Amino acid sequence: MKTGLWLIGARGSVAVTSMIGALAIRAGLAEPTGCVLESPELRSDALPGIGDLVFGGHDIVSTPLEKKAATLAEAGIVPGRLATAVQDVLLGIEHDVRPLPVAATQGETARAIGADLGRFRSRHRLDRIVVINVSTTEPAPPPHPAHADLAALRAALEGQEPVLPPSALAAYAALSAGCPYVDFTPSTGARLPALDTLARERGLPYGGHDGKTGETLVKSVLAPMFAQRNLKVRTWSGINLLGGGDGANLAEPAANAAKAASKQRVLPETLGYVPQGDTRIDFVADLGDFKTAWDLVTFDGFLGTRMRVEFTWHGCDSALAAPLILDLARLTAAAHRAGRTGPLTELAFFFKDPLGSVPHALAEQWRALRAAVEAYGTASTPR
Amino acid sequence: MKTGLWLIGARGSVAVTSMIGALAIRAGLAEPTGCVLESPELRSDALPGIGDLVFGGHDIVSTPLEKKAATLAEAGIVPGRLATAVQDVLLGIEHDVRPLPVAATQGETARAIGADLGRFRSRHRLDRIVVINVSTTEPAPPPHPAHADLAALRAALEGQEPVLPPSALAAYAALSAGCPYVDFTPSTGARLPALDTLARERGLPYGGHDGKTGETLVKSVLAPMFAQRNLKVRTWSGINLLGGGDGANLAEPAANAAKAASKQRVLPETLGYVPQGDTRIDFVADLGDFKTAWDLVTFDGFLGTRMRVEFTWHGCDSALAAPLILDLARLTAAAHRAGRTGPLTELAFFFKDPLGSVPHALAEQWRALRAAVEAYGTASTPR
Amino acid sequence: MKTGLWLIGARGSVAVTSMIGALAIRAGLAEPTGCVLESPELRSDALPGIGDLVFGGHDIVSTPLEKKAATLAEAGIVPGRLATAVQDVLLGIEHDVRPLPVAATQGETARAIGADLGRFRSRHRLDRIVVINVSTTEPAPPPHPAHADLAALRAALEGQEPVLPPSALAAYAALSAGCPYVDFTPSTGARLPALDTLARERGLPYGGHDGKTGETLVKSVLAPMFAQRNLKVRTWSGINLLGGGDGANLAEPAANAAKAASKQRVLPETLGYVPQGDTRIDFVADLGDFKTAWDLVTFDGFLGTRMRVEFTWHGCDSALAAPLILDLARLTAAAHRAGRTGPLTELAFFFKDPLGSVPHALAEQWRALRAAVEAYGTASTPR
Amino acid sequence: MKTGLWLIGARGSVAVTSMIGALAIRAGLAEPTGCVLESPELRSDALPGIGDLVFGGHDIVSTPLEKKAATLAEAGIVPGRLATAVQDVLLGIEHDVRPLPVAATQGETARAIGADLGRFRSRHRLDRIVVINVSTTEPAPPPHPAHADLAALRAALEGQEPVLPPSALAAYAALSAGCPYVDFTPSTGARLPALDTLARERGLPYGGHDGKTGETLVKSVLAPMFAQRNLKVRTWSGINLLGGGDGANLAEPAANAAKAASKQRVLPETLGYVPQGDTRIDFVADLGDFKTAWDLVTFDGFLGTRMRVEFTWHGCDSALAAPLILDLARLTAAAHRAGRTGPLTELAFFFKDPLGSVPHALAEQWRALRAAVEAYGTASTPR
Ligand SMILES: NC(=O)c1ccc[n+]([C@@H]2O[C@H](COP(=O)([O-])OP(=O)(O)OC[C@H]3O[C@@H](n4cnc5c(N)ncnc54)[C@H](O)[C@@H]3O)[C@@H](O)[C@H]2O)c1
Ligand SMILES: NC(=O)c1ccc[n+]([C@@H]2O[C@H](COP(=O)([O-])OP(=O)(O)OC[C@H]3O[C@@H](n4cnc5c(N)ncnc54)[C@H](O)[C@@H]3O)[C@@H](O)[C@H]2O)c1
Ligand SMILES: NC(=O)c1ccc[n+]([C@@H]2O[C@H](COP(=O)([O-])OP(=O)(O)OC[C@H]3O[C@@H](n4cnc5c(N)ncnc54)[C@H](O)[C@@H]3O)[C@@H](O)[C@H]2O)c1
Ligand SMILES: NC(=O)c1ccc[n+]([C@@H]2O[C@H](COP(=O)([O-])OP(=O)(O)OC[C@H]3O[C@@H](n4cnc5c(N)ncnc54)[C@H](O)[C@@H]3O)[C@@H](O)[C@H]2O)c1
Ligand code: NA
Ligand code: NA
Known about the structure:
The structure is a homotetramer. Chain A is globular. By secondary structure, chain A is of the alpha/beta class. Chain A is built from 14 helices and 11 strands. The N and C termini of chain A lie close together (about 10 Å). In chain A, a hairpin with a 5-residue loop joins strand 9 and strand 10. In chain A, the strands form 2 sheets. Chain A has a 7-stranded parallel sheet with strand order 3-2-1-4-5-6-11, with helices on both faces. A 4-stranded mixed sheet of chain A has the order 8-7-9-10. The first copy, chain A, folds into 2 domains: about 5-210 and about 320-380, NAD(P)-binding Rossmann-like Domain (Rossmann fold); about 215-315, Dihydrodipicolinate Reductase, domain 2, CATH 3.30.360.10. The first copy, chain A, has helices at about 15-25, 65-75, 80-85, 85-95, 105-125, 150-155, 165-175, 195-200, 215-230, 245-250, 255-265, 265-270, 315-335, 360-380; strands at about 5-10, 55-60, 95-100, 130-135, 180-185, 205-210, 230-240, 280-285, 290-300, 305-315, 340-345. Chains in contact: A-B, A-C, B-D, C-D. The interface of B and D includes residues 237, 277 and 292 of B. The complex binds nicotinamide-adenine-dinucleotide (NAD) (4 copies) and sodium ion (NA) (2 copies). One nicotinamide-adenine-dinucleotide (NAD) binds next to helix 1, strand 2, helix 10 and helix 13 of chain C. Chains A, B, C, D: Its EC number is 5.5.1.4. Chains A, B, C, D: Belongs to the myo-inositol 1-phosphate synthase family.
């Protein structure tokens, strides 16, 4: 099951960390720690192996992968010895990491993206390609009537005015080229009615949004705990301090707002009400990719007695995200093979702001994921 | 479904807080916050209501309940206005809180305990009595051959030498008197083969051990999170600072050891391995019943990158425990009514060190509990 | 040494807590915990006693002091029994808490304020009055040329257009009436060249700004520690979560900015450089006056090894501020008596944003304070 | 001022980190971060430079310095590039790191130690040698009458039975050989009346005990803050989690007790009373040299309102200790040159458990240190 993994933002931290990791695991130099599909309960023949993944992608910068790998090693995100060990193989991937096409109309750009995907598929004789967006988070786009209607969208894309934000254009291009699309960022991606129509028309699955790698992950187990114990959460406040490329971008108010909203959604969904308090994201360049998040939760116990819990999370964002990219590629490939179309609600386990009407408690998301992996196995027909 | 709730340690903090709370809720003066069975998903006609509970119990001290209530109010464990409001009703309970019988042999003591239970039952025309141990934690008893054999135990109890620790004697007496028994402490309770035989012989259910109210509760959601994300926990260390009666007793090394062991069990059970690190319990008188627990977890992410999470829990122990006592009484009564015998594994949700081979992840324990509540409803036949 | 303590914002939390405390201490019902001048090293005959303070003030609301006291007790800021015990004496203070005068011109308003001060002085035969501003924090005012010139200011005050923010008008009125003025808030207060001229002209001392009661207090001992150990602080980020009247006001961006700036000043002043990171203030109504602040400091050790310290402060803001109000009144009275004029730099110990070129390390501020108290003793001539 | 720095425990983490650092700073490869004497306020010509230090020492293991350096680099305690850069110079030091002599009597051992010091002095034509103990912490020795009397001690040392623990024997040998001695560990060192007599007889200074590098450092600024604000500390509890060689040794109850006692001393000394609570040290191998300490302080504010502060310190112990070793060597050499004899109380800034009747607040210790550095300058006469 040779599977292409086409990354939008292929020269970024998450992307390159996932490449180094996959190559190191394949070479037997590292354990697949953090790869959810490698835990005993989820291992399945219905999934392509990590070794079956072939990397390619688009980016708007041209930093060599090797140089990015060195930067990641220096920052302590990946071990230096692994960055060095996979250097040659990484060089091989360079051919498949293309500059993002820019054309006169968005329609043309989409066709150029599709052409890149086609070349990638044939060069490597891939069974399928999964496109995953790990590029810079965009601000929410202004609404446009064509977002809700596929025919109108197709027409609008041929005009001079851009109608889709880059993430949605990538989704449009991927789906038009027969490739499932997953958005790891909080950007729009495939989350437009017209793109849902397109996915269904083409019999393709899609997934998102916003990888759940730190504070929100902890929230998604703590909030259900309060709910199940019938304890009343009064306030939940948090702050995320981070540097790095992602942090710099999130310092922009619009991107920040998109992200912060995505981070709070788990509370009403699991508690059934909205406690007071906000989640902040603060850019502190010097912290780099090592994020520190602090949350304070105050709650009422029996007879109104006030109690509190606070936690500090200190994690390396790219190292938390990268193994999930491998998981998502493998799962989406298997879902596609099993004939699934539309939003993949079983991927809620991976996202802060999952698609569809899904559980937000991590434990339930895990069960949904396990059931889906089993179902892929049953549905799969040899190819 | 008039249900007796007989508390061993009835003049202690947990016991009296549960009484004040039940009376205040019944009187419409307080919400049932922290009562698990009052959350929408678990409400069921198969359970006795909080208002159906009738309180009684044993203790070795004679502090009036009213005085204890005032102490609890002063310490901020219950609101002063509630302690005052239920004063009269609490006075009424005094008749049913008896000094723990002391007799020449443990057999005789057990019969005296049984007689107290009998009188309680008839005075209030109770459908059934659930006995719950909330007395001071004991050290683990020395092993004795009679612990494994009911006939030998019955014989030994008639000798001069004590053969059972107080909690197990209470369990023996309760079961012999036809009452289900639950241990909220880490003490021995019904956890002896001979007592299991007795429970089955009498067709009675029993439950335990060690109410899960703070640090271990958080552990039981965080540890599964690491497991499901396939992150490798390297160390998990914790310290619990608490005063109060329970804290003073836990300052004794033997009781401390019993408790600390109980607190770590969740890690191997959910992770599949034992990370480095210990859990400490430190007595700091001035903190009273407001416990502060701090835990540090260090873990490996992708490619071995080191990360950490720490949390501080600041909770009022008695206020966390009391509503669970009400839940356990109601559940055990319903289980008894539904004909259940032997260890109630569905109560794992409530305990640090649950009986039987059960899940240790809170979310799974919650599902088992919900399934059990549904089953009680189906099985129940009016009695 | 009968000393009037005239509070701008006399019906607010800080003001009323300081009244309750002074009355309770005077009645022997409470210890002077938190009163700096009551520590053995600072006790001095040169200072008026807590019992020598007579309370009065202005406010723009009319909530009875007794009602405010009940609210403070309910919120756990002062013990209920003390609020009740001083009820009658508090009622006596009502006569001296006047509505803030409002007149056609600011000049007229200032004269009306002065008249209130005069009546207060004669009614109680006071040796002197210290005016302290504990009213709501204002946004920074727009600059005005009259701020720098006393004659121009006097002229401008008789015009229709307001030229001073309320805190500066209060300072002008106090100084004009011969009363020293202290600003416990970050508002403008006496911090204008024209008012400095006025103070010197009248031979009066003044002080400020912004009481140092929580996170900044801790900063003022931690930052010098890093400096003295020659450790390089790379980032210092913090968040303050608070509700209460002050919190609600600080939710306004302009007031928030004034406060946040004041909170960071200690870092460059003690470290000699500005680390990355910001201090946030977030309003969370439910937390009331109990503020939680969290700070993360990352620093370089020997050979660049990265280290970190984080702290969580959980304090009751009004209870931290109130004893300092008593201290400031007593110190300023003694300074006045000792003939001091202009900015009281020895009060830096109490402020986040102290006047003048002063040390910002708490330990040095403490020494300056101790030296000043000694000097007051020497300078004092009986009156 | 060519100064020998003779380290007892010269192959341990602190020792080798201090060597690598000194060599790297000398070579212009690293900044002297963490070296107190390099801060602008303390720089002085009366002190030997870091470049004037010549390393030697004793150890009981024979791990090559180069190998230890590699281990330290791998553990992230020193940067790999520095460990590599100083490799050759480190090799040169090997000649001066000798196996600890073992002889028939302790007297003979002491003479052999003295002989090693003599050879070190002449080989490098040193002006003086400072001996610093950075070896494994010992349990407290049993008392012995000869500890109080120098003549008795000299006699006892010639007997078969050991009379001094290793640290005190090293101090005896150093002082006898005319070398000042400093103990960075909580071991006995020169802290015996007989050794004080010896130091004075020989006109030598000595110093100690127990380097202050983490939790106690923070305590020594926080505790004075509470005292100066007249806030009443009720409880102060802490836990230190660490691995590494030092951690492993501290897992031994006797060494642990010595250390824990040393860590709490700052509280009564600065507060004037002993709050409730203990300090724990827990060995967690996997944490290595990166210690995490957590402290909870609860305190009373005005009118008894309860408040709390907690802090988490995450530091690299050897990287915190190493620069202080360089400082101590330079200071002690200057003190010796200035003719100081007996305990160097001005070194209190560096120690958890300083010698003599000295201030325990860090700020006051800093002032004492600064004054001493100035005095060395004045007293110094070229030699
Ligand atoms: N790391 C995590 O834990 C995590 C979790 C959730 C979401 N995310 C999201 O993942 C994304 C990537 O994070 P990162 O840390 O790798 O950021 P990064 O800044 O290192 O990488 C982003 C890459 O995207 C490229 N890019 C920007 N615009 C592009 C476009 N229009 N087309 C193609 N490439 C484009 C950039 O040049 C850059 O190479 C971010 O949006 C982030 O919010 C990350
Ligand atoms: N509060 C919690 O969160 C929590 C959680 C888990 C377990 N527990 C356990 O619950 C128990 C009660 O806690 P608490 O805080 O109420 O303690 P407590 O000290 O306030 O009360 C214990 C009571 O038991 C009585 N007692 C002692 N020995 C007895 C005996 N042999 N027979 C009858 N009564 C006896 C004592 O006199 C006292 O009144 C403890 O064992 C504790 O470890 C409490
Ligand atoms: N509590 C602390 O720890 C602390 C520390 C530093 C500074 N402060 C400052 O102290 C001030 C008081 O805090 P608080 O918690 O008591 O606030 P609060 O809201 O309880 O009280 C403020 C009072 O000022 C009154 N007021 C508003 N405008 C006025 C005016 N123009 N003239 C007279 N009165 C006026 C209000 O009606 C109110 O009664 C705030 O500015 C706060 O920022 C407090
Ligand atoms: N690192 C810190 O922050 C810090 C702070 C205060 C005190 N200390 C103390 O410093 C000492 C050294 O710490 P470390 O982390 O380097 O420990 P370490 O275990 O790495 O090194 C100790 C060295 O001492 C050697 N040694 C043992 N007994 C000896 C003896 N009798 N004579 C000569 N050498 C002997 C050992 O072989 C080892 O090489 C410890 O006692 C520790 O408690 C360290
Ligand atoms: Na914390
Ligand atoms: Na923390």
